[in-house]
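Morning!

This is the sequence you dropped in the shared folder:
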Amino acid sequence: MANLHLFTDKEMTTTKTIVPQQVHDKMLANRLQIFRQQYIDKSQNEAAKKLEIAQSALSYLESGRTPIKHEFIAKLVKEYGLNQDWFTSGHGKPQDKNPAKATLITDLNSLNEELNVLKKHIKIMEANTNHLFKVIGQQGKQIEALEKKLSKLS
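The structure's back. Tokens below.
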């Protein structure tokens, strides 16, 4: 069974739930290597390129010298269909043939979230633009006042 590193109370912020941070286990490291060879690339170097990590980092993960972070596992699940049950327990097949696929609704929800973020950015840009116009207007008035003083001195 996998050893889980749990956050201590000091490591946790506002929540009191215990969240696993990373998994470190020789069996998991071995399963990672098996999965990589079967479903990503036989070459560790090529697999590391596909996974966008250094080859040495992948080597450390597969040898058990570096803990496997949950974010990395989530990436394998999402991009390569890693069966989490197999990965954590050895039960089942390495790859989930029917991973959760995006649907029209999830795509629309994702687009809606992006749209909301863009709307917030537009509001910020509008506020900055309005502020910029005010500053330019104030500077224009200052320039006019300075020009009047200059014309009186001449």
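Headline: Strands lie at 4-6, 20-23, 68-69.

More detail when I'm at my desk.
O.
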